Amino acid sequence: MSQPQMIFVNLPVKDLDAAKAFWEKLGYSFNPQFTDDTAACLVFSDTIFAMLLTEAKFKEFTSKKIADTARTAQGIFALSADSRERVDELVDGALAGGATEPRPAMEYGFMYGRTFEDLDHHLWEVVWMDPAAARQG
User: Fold this and answer.
1) At a CB cut-off of 8 Å and minimum separation 6, what does 107 contact?
2) CB-CB contact of 120 with 52 (8 Å)
3) First to last CA, the chain
4) pLDDT band per the 50, 70, 90 thresholds, residue 1
5) CA torsion, points 76, 82, 88, 94, in degrees to nearest 10?
6) Measured between alpha carbons, how far is 34 from 58 in angstroms, rounded to an integer?
7) Smallest Cα–Cα separation from 61: which of 30, 33, 38?
8) CA distance 84 to 9
9) SS3 of 16, please?
10) What pTM was estimated for this model as a whole?
11) What is the mean pLDDT of residues 78-90?
């Protein structure tokens, strides 16, 4: 039997220490095995990680120009939450840590979500969905 597939999202950050402090305030941790002064492995779950890389380190992996995420969206990274309350807790915590909320909450009855921009303007969407309603379609 094969192991579950993992995902490592690589994101450039301007200030690695500030980015780490931001995520730690939200209750997340970093894998020290893959963290140094140029990179930090942010742990969302056993299979989901974000590699926060200094811009210099990020440039080692691509010849492309780093997106100016203050002006352009490079992607929206969605995280699930256990409840509506957890969505609000995470986003409110992000806002308290210096994030911004670029749009109103999404309310669909069976699904609730909010979006925030982190310190480097990466877009994160935190979403709760009622599992019973999702199964019913």
Assistant:
1) none
2) no
3) 31
4) low
5) -50
6) 14
7) 38
8) 25
9) helix
10) 0.90
11) 96
Tell me which of 2-16, 86-100, 104-118, 122-136 is least confident: 122-136
Residue with tokens 């691509």: 62
CA 26 to chain centre: 11
CATH code 3.10.180.10 region(s) in the chain: 1-65, 67-137
Match 């986003």 to its residue by tokens. 91
Assign domain 67-137 to its CATH superfamily: 2,3-Dihydroxybiphenyl 1,2-Dioxygenase, domain 1 (3.10.180.10)
Closest Cα partner for 119 from 98, 89, 95?
98
In the block, residue with structure tokens 């935190």: 126
Pairing of strands 7-13, 48-54: parallel
Residue found by looking up tokens 């409110």 in the block:
92
Query: Half-sphere exposure (CA, 13 Å, Cβ side) for 28?
Result: 22
